[in-house]
Amino acid sequence: MLAAAGAAGARSVLERGEKVGLVRSDVVLPSGKNGPEFADEARAPHPDLPIIVMSGYPVEAATRNGFLGSDQVPLSKPFQMEQLAEALREALGCRPFPRFGLRAENLAGC
């Protein structure tokens, strides 16, 4: 697991060529970009990269206001571990992502 402070830190991780199998971002980021904007940027070189976007907004409101892309998996805050696991299964589609070094069989219940 890699951690980054804001979009700029995450961008730097991606630019270093680190193996990234999934991005989990908040809707609101401290750098001025929002989560969906960062997700678009992260996917430019990695179009298959799964994205989970966390939000304190209701999913419908986040979608309506453009904070959640249709190809991003929402995760409402606060959340329980079971909800996080479900978001991971949905984002990964319970399929392998060998390009990113992440295998779906590592997720129990897939």
Which helices and strands appear, and what pairs or packs with what?
Blueprint: H1 6-15, E1 23-26, H2 35-43, E2 51-55, H3 59-64, E3 73-76, H4 81-92
Parallel strand pairs: 1-2, 2-3
Defining key terms:
single chain, 110 residues, Rossmann fold, 3 strands
Short description:
The chain is α/β, with parallel strands linked by helices.
Q: Would you mind describing this structure in some detail?
A:
With 110 residues, this protein is α/β, with parallel strands linked by helices. It has one domain (22-101): 3-Layer(aba) Sandwich (Rossmann fold). 34% of the residues lie in helices and 12% in strands. The protein has helices at 6-15, 35-43, 59-64, 81-92, and strands spanning 23-26, 51-55, 73-76. Strand 1 (23-26), helix 2 (35-43) and strand 2 (51-55) form a beta-alpha-beta unit. Residues 96-104 have low confidence and may be disordered.
Separation of termini?
20 Å
Low-confidence residue ranges:
96-104
Content of β-strand: 5-15%
CATH class type: Alpha Beta
Helix content: 25-40%
Give the CATH H-level superfamily. Answer: Response regulator
Mean pLDDT: 78
Q: Structural class of the helix and strand makeup? A: alpha/beta
Give a short account of the largest sheet: 3 strands, parallel
Quaternary organization: single chain
The total beta strand count reads: 3
Number of helices: 4
CATH topology: Rossmann fold
Query: Shape from CA axes?
Result: globular
How do the SSEs run, as a string of H and E?
HEHEHEH
Return the domain count. 1
Order of strands in the sheet with most strands: 1-2-3
In the CATH classification, which architecture applies?
A: 3-Layer(aba) Sandwich
